Recover the amino acids of this structure.
């Protein structure tokens, strides 16, 4: 039986942050960002994590509500049974199927706690090498092509090293023609968030002429096989995102020759252990990774910077400056240290201060283990 005081040592806090610009993908439009922040406490130390589930199950099957129930009912209690040790948690939590974003939020908080208790940065705990991370930016679908061109131009001038454009049926060839006319040399990748089908192979092949850095998850969100078929028919390198839900899936996709580069998101993969396994596989086989983004608050962003310091993350990450998303975040702003680069925080754990008063102010619900 858990004591009430023990139950307060781990909590979830749903916060809401207004976005500076709405973010539109092939799924829909977001104006405010709701996030679940995880806070764990041991002695004088506090660890922070973030669950990247959205309100609707459009990216994957998880939602904020599904994550809240999973956290309260079985993920928080397991973290307590593991005495908040991340290695124990990451190992034991794999008994629960799915719920990867919810699991990852707690995994990250426990790793932050460990880093703070041992006086080490997460990057050094993970075996990271990079001190600064090359930054790219992901631009959602805009109302008009003109407004897209303006946004590309302003991000390019800010110094981002590559631009990723969301595409969807009807927002591809003609848009990219205009983009390439205006920006013939800007490094551009596209992300379809699984919006195309087997009937679209010719259309997708016609995007080869735009000299894309990569084409991310053009087909079904859980697919590896048809991506391997598509890979033989197009020249643009295929990047996989949604369908790489574990290190084992990465290995399967590699054996099936389904991709050229990989977008890694700790939330999608269920926690730190899975990412470290994927990174060691990636290193062994020379697979180029980039770190993806899920409109994280400063907490998730700091975690991503540490993950992106691992050896296989050789490509610019979807980790942008804070001003691109929020007017007021819950951590200090992330800014370029030199154009196109963001430093990996140096302090213990995530290495950035969390403004608890802002978390409090933006909080709309708090919950504890049941
Ligand atoms: Mg993606």
């Amino acid at each position: 039986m858990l004591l009430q005081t023990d139950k307060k040592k781990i909590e979830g806090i749903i916060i809401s942050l207004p976005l500076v610009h709405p973010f539109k993908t092939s799924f829909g439009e977001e104006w405010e960002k709701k996030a679940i922040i995880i806070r764990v406490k041991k002695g004088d130390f506090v660890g922070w994590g973030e669950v990247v589930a959205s309100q609707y199950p459009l990216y994957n099957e998880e939602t904020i509500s599904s994550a809240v129930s999973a956290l309260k009912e079985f993920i928080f209690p397991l973290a307590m049974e593991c005495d908040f040790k991340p290695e124990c948690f990451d190992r034991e939590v794999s008994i629960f199927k799915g719920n990867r974003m919810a699991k990852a939020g707690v995994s990250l908080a426990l790793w932050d706690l460990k880093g703070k208790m041992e006086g080490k940065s997460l990057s050094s705990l993970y075996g990271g090498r990079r001190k600064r991370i090359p930054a790219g930016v992901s631009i959602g679908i805009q109302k008009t092509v003109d407004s897209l061109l303006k946004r590309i131009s302003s991000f390019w001038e800010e110094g981002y090293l590559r631009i990723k454009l969301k595409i969807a049926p009807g927002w591809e060839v003609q848009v990219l023609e205009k983009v390439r006319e205006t920006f013939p040399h800007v490094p551009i990748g596209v992300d379809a968030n699984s919006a195309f089908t087997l009937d679209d192979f010719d259309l997708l092949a016609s995007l080869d002429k735009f000299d894309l850095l990569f084409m991310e998850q053009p087909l079904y969100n859980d697919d590896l096989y048809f991506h391997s078929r598509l890979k033989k028919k197009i020249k643009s390198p295929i990047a996989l995102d949604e369908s790489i839900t574990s290190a084992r899936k990465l290995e399967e996709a590699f054996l099936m020759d389904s991709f050229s580069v990989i977008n890694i998101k700790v939330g999608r993969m269920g926690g730190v252990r899975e990412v470290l396994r994927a990174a060691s596989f990636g290193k062994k086989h020379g697979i180029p990774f980039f770190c993806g983004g899920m409109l994280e608050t400063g907490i998730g962003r700091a975690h991503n910077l540490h993950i992106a310091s691992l050896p296989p993350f050789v490509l610019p990450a979807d980790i942008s400056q804070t001003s691109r998303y929020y007017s007021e975040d819950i951590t200090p702003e992330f800014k370029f240290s030199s154009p196109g680069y963001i430093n990996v925080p140096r302090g213990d754990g995530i290495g950035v201060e969390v403004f608890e008063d802002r978390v409090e102010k933006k909080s709309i619900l708090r919950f504890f283990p049941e």
Notes: Residues 100-118 form the longest helix (19 residues). The radius of gyration is 20 Å. Residues 191, 193, 216-217, 241, 263, 292 surround magnesium ion (CB under 6 Å).
